[in-house]
Known about the structure:
Elements: H1 3-14, H2 30-49, E1 57-66, E2 69-73, E3 78-81, E4 88-89, E5 98-99, H3 103-111, E6 120-124, E7 127-134, E8 145-152, E9 156-158, E10 164-166, E11 175-176, H4 180-194, H5 200-216, H6 231-236
Parallel strand pairs: 5-6
Antiparallel strand pairs: 1-8, 2-7, 3-8, 4-8, 6-7, 9-10, 9-11
Helix pairs in contact: 1-4, 2-4, 4-5
Amino acid sequence: MTLLSVVKDVCAVVGVQRPTSVILGIDANRTMQEMLALATEMANRIAYDYRDWTVLRTVKLGGAFGGPGAVFPMPVNYKRMLLTSNVWRSSNYQTPMRFVPDTDEYLNRRARGLSESPGEWTLVAGEMYVNPPLSDAVGDADAEAIHFTYMDKNCIRMEGPAAGYGEAFLHDGDTFRLDERLLKLGMIWQWKQNKGTSYAEDMGTFETAMAVAMGHDRPAPIIAGRHPISANVRVAYPWPVPT
């Protein structure tokens, strides 16, 4: 469903006249201004506030994150790390680097010459700081690199000449990269709340749909069989599970 299709459905439910366009003439249409702002806000809320959706996960394998160096700019489409993200050095796949969340602690450890053996990293001003620095030149067969997974900040698929991905709806034909029904249900309850009308039932419908979508975003766990489903299970019980 396109932005226009979603907004039409929302308008039909909340009692607002259905538009022929969301974007065309929007400067003179307060209702469509609100609908556009709500669509973008709800799309980003669904995309990043509930879970690390698999469709928005992006793997960074080396590339600009290859030695030498200790400071690297984050990718242009970087939103945030996954809630369970680790950063791995290509020279050590057994243990991830330690994340140091406090910048002052990170600087203090550098000043004192301290560092854990797998390495350490932190984030400052859109850049990743790595210690010890990656070694060797880019292109060298033995060059170090770091690998991690992050969330893509562009949850909107754009149409037209600017086709690609973006953070906000700009055209009637733009689409949400996740389930458009979630976007529609979220807009309905939030619109009603914004206007001071009853919204509890609509919010409940949205939350039920969200729970189902979240459950389907990842395969169900296997509790018996030959292959455990996660690294945690392999560490705790590294043998085939009895059946």
